[in-house]
TrEMBL record:
This is VOC domain-containing protein. SUPFAM superfamilies: Glyoxalase/Bleomycin resistance protein/Dihydroxybiphenyl dioxygenase (SSF54593). Transmembrane segments: none annotated. Pfam families: Glyoxalase_6. CDD domains: SgaA_N_like. PROSITE patterns: VOC. InterPro entries: Anthracycline_SecMetBiosynth, Glyas_Bleomycin-R_OHBP_Dase, Glyoxalase_6, VOC_core. It comes from Streptomyces spinoverrucosus. Residues 22-136, 150-265 form the VOC domain.
């Protein structure tokens, strides 16, 4: 885990287009849109405004007036795992989608236009983990980072890291930096020498109802206090707060079951600490 903000500054200053392969947005599709807005609005201080409606009702979450994440409503007949989905930047989503297919991945939705905001595709890697691809137009992606309530890191939980890393490396041009350890299968994906995401091979420890999936870490001012809020708001604690080399971390789920991590970090340290 590290500084992974891409082109968005600490307070959204100088927010430029994200480089290809950089996580640039995160989105959640749920059944109860209003209740989910209430949960995250209270937990993170988000406000909401309407976003593109191509895939149904959708809102963008804002923090201090800057866009942070998206939440949409699933059709009533769609019973999919409720999960936060990271979007990876692309200069040409059509070309990226074709490369994903050629490398053994699947393109489930798109590419399609999201009004004037840009173009998107929703894909899965060869192990089945779902992610999005975003080609920016008017909407460049997350406009604020490094403060409580913003995405801090994205991590793929998968069976093993090596083979799936080849897929992401071929599609997005990442370089890999493995963690040398007999106890952990982990590597970091880098762009231009900057770490942008992690791959964690956990073997049979994957949740049976999930399979391989991406996990988003959200920054909080106080992990223990945020955990209390999660529970009070109807969420669940999956892994209690503990200290790590990267900060104080906990894994939780919202009332519909979407898993995410809370992390309290010292954002004055801008180096890879894994």
């Amino acid at each position: 885990m590290t500084e992974a903000r891409g082109s968005a500054g600490r307070n959204g200053e100088g927010h430029a287009r994200y480089a290809t392969g950089t996580p640039c947005w995160v989105s959640l599709m749920v059944h109860g849109l209003a209740a989910t807005q209430e949960f995250y609005g209270t937990l993170f201080g988000w406000e909401f405004r309407p976003g593109p409606q191509q895939l149904g009702p959708y809102v963008r979450a804002l923090l201090d007036g800057r866009e942070v994440a998206g939440i949409g409503r699933l059709p009533p007949d769609r019973h999919l795992p409720i999960a936060w989905t990271p979007y990876l930047a692309s200069d040409d989503v059509g070309r990226t989608a074709e490369t994903i297919r050629l490398c053994g991945g699947t393109v489930g939705v798109g590419p399609l236009d999201a009004e004037e905001a840009g173009r998107l595709a929703i894909c899965s890697d060869p192990s089945g983990a779902v992610f999005g691809v975003w080609q920016a137009a008017a909407h460049r992606g997350t406009g604020i980072a490094g403060v409580p309530g913003t995405p801090a890191w994205h991590e793929l939980l998968t069976f093993e890291s090596e083979s799936v890393a080849k897929f992401y490396g071929t599609v997005f041009g990442y370089e890999e930096e493995p963690v040398v350890s007999a106890d952990i299968d982990y590597l970091t994906l880098h762009l231009d020498g900057r770490p942008v995401a992690g791959l964690h091979g956990v073997g049979t420890s994957l949740p049976r109802d999930r399979g391989p999936h991406w996990l988003t870490y959200f920054e909080v001012a106080d992990t223990d206090e945020a955990l209390d809020h999660v529970v009070d708001l109807g969420g669940h604690v999956l892994k209690p707060a503990h200290d790590s080399a990267h900060g104080r971390v906990a894994t939780v789920a919202d009332p519909e079951g979407a898993r995410f991590c809370l992390i309290q970090t010292d954002r004055l340290i801008q180096t890879d600490r894994r």
